[in-house]
Every structure is written in C-alpha cells, then in structure tokens.
UniProtKB/TrEMBL annotation:
PROSITE patterns: ABC_TRANSPORTER_2
GO molecular function terms attached to this record: ATP binding
Keywords noted in UniProt: ATP-binding, Nucleotide-binding, Transport
Protein name: Metal ABC transporter ATP-binding protein
Amino acid sequence: MTSHISNSHPIVKVENLTIYQHSYCAVRDVSFALLPGTNTAIVGPNGAGKSTLVQAVLNLIPYSVGKVEIFDRPIERLGHLRNQLGYVPQNFVFDRSFPLSVSELVGLGWIREGRGALALAKRGEAQRDEVRGEGRGSFWRSWNHGQQEKKAAIAQALRRVGVYHLRNQAIGTLSGGEMKRVLLAYCLVLPRKLLVLDEAFAGVDAQGTADFYNLLHELQQEEGWTVLQVSHDIDMVSRHCDRVICLNQTLVCTGTPEVALSAQNLLATYGPSFSRYQHNHS
Ligand SMILES: Nc1ncnc2c1ncn2[C@@H]1O[C@H](COP(=O)(O)OP(=O)(O)OP(=O)(O)O)[C@@H](O)[C@H]1O
C-alpha cells in the first residue's frame, strides 16, 4: 500500500475551527491534529458539538472560520483521496422499504482510485479494441475479475464485523446494532487511511463492542488506519484510545487518556453532573 504520509506527520490538521448551526455557535475555535495509526476519541456531554465537529472535518457541513487539512490537502480539495476516508454516522436515515440487501449496501463502498473516470476511459478504449477485434475479450475478463474481487471484499468485510449471515437480508429489516455493523463493513470493503466513527458502537452489545475495539486495534496496528471516534463510553476510551479530545463547544483539553480523562478534566468537560455520575458508579 502506498503511503502519502510520513509517520510523524499529521494525517488530519484542524485549526481554529468555528462552526455555526444556523445562528447557534456549536463549535468554537477548536484545533487538533491526528497522527497516522492513532485512535483518538472525542468525548463531551450531549450537545457539546462532537457530531458537528466531525461532520465539518469531513466537509459534510460548512464551517465559518478556520482550516481543515487531510492528507496535507484542504478538505474541500481532497478529490479522489476521499475514497480513503470511511465514516459511520451517528444516525443513518433511510427509507426502510427501499429494496437494498446488506451485500449491495456494503458494495456501494467499493469505489476506488482507478475505478472512477480513468477506469471508465480505459474501459472505453478496451471496448473500442473489442469492436475492432483487437481486445480478444480482455475487457470482459478484466470486468469479471473486478466483480469477483468486489464480491470477495464484501464477504470479507461482512465476516470481519460478524454479519456475513445477514448478507442477503434487506437493510430495512436490520436491528440498530446490526445496522451499525453493516455500516462499518461498508467502510471496511476497501483499505482506508482514516476511519471516522460517530457513536458507532451505540446499540451494539457488550461482546460486539469488545470485538469492534479489537478490530479497530487490528486496523491500526496491522494496516495503519487512523481512527477518530465520538464516544460516550469513557471506560472503553480510556482502555483503547491513544488520544482524547474533551469538547464542550470549545476544546477543554486534549492528551493521552491518563491526562485528558483525569477527574479534574472530566469535571471541566461535563460539569457537576459528571461528579454525580462518578459518585453513583464508584
Ligand atoms: N440545525 C441546527 N440548528 C440549531 N442548532 C443545532 C442544529 N444542529 C445542531 N444544533 C445544536 O448544536 C449543538 C451541537 O450538536 P451536536 O449534534 O454536534 O452535539 P453532540 O455533542 O454530537 O451531542 P450528542 O452527544 O447528544 O450526540 C446542539 O446543542 C444542537 O442542538
């Protein structure tokens, strides 16, 4: 796999980001950087701006002030490198009667460099060769090979998240936790450099959550993926993430879990309700 990034160079740079949701300032003056191969969690109370922040980082909503760079390019000019981003949103809203199977949904993630305009142009050339009798079936052989490759990648992605048995099921029939797994499979169908998860484990059972964190660890350690996740699970974050960003409209602190998740920082992030929570769970 070719790398665009050297190991000590940030894969994501966010500088002084301010985001308005209509007239409400949801995120104010937030800066952070993500190093390749790290797993970073954004934590904070409901309404802190976590989803807003990741959506702006992915250029899904506009920001008012600041700068976002991914792979050293402004997010607005990422071009085909967007294929190297995977995103599982907090809510996936769709028409449940839409006739799409789990495998078909995961297959939509199979868009890769060389399978876009350039590949189409090459296919056009191949088709012209066929018409002239010069292609000797090479176009169809390569198309067939691509389809086999795609089918194998879908099967592997579904197996990795434990839902291969659901491959022919309509997406409208899935439970909440199953849908989260399928959306993760959609991201896994191709190698990515950055995976952004917005409460991807909400609704997933305890064993499933543990399996997911193991899978993220594997993606990080063996395949060099960088993970940015929004989470409310302080316990899992402290055990599995390398870095934590504490957010409450603005950046409260950032650092290793030991530093960022100290009682003092959590109190500053969540307010007095956190000490009540801590008291009830200790
Ligand atoms: N379209 C909108 N108009 C006005 N305010 C909005 C809009 N969208 C979001 N907000 C507000 O922006 C704030 C940040 O929302 P966001 O969804 O980013 O929070 P969050 O930290 O992800 O919360 P949660 O943990 O509950 O998912 C919230 O107070 C929300 O009500």
